[in-house]
Design a protein that fits this description.
Strand order of the largest sheet: 1-2
Structural class: mainly alpha
Helix content: 40-55%
Strand content: 5-15%
Number of helices: 4
Distance between the termini: 31 Å
Amino acid sequence: MPEDLPRSGGAGLLDGLEATTFAGLIDELQKAAPKARVVRDKRFVDNGKINTSAGLSSGIDGALHVIERLLGKGTAQVAATALEYD
């Protein structure tokens, strides 16, 4: 299990929030953050201040989502194009 899961879960940062992670670590996340609503069917989850993602490319999706939320769709599209990410 990644070192930061127990500390994050124990700190209660995900309590009452929806969260996701790599498919192989979903059960570990649920154990580490038992008060979180762990989901398996989303590539990323945006809770406003805390974002979680389900893997490498879904992390890029989540990052582009944050760029869009903060700076607009056009800026997110420019970033995706620069990354050669469809």
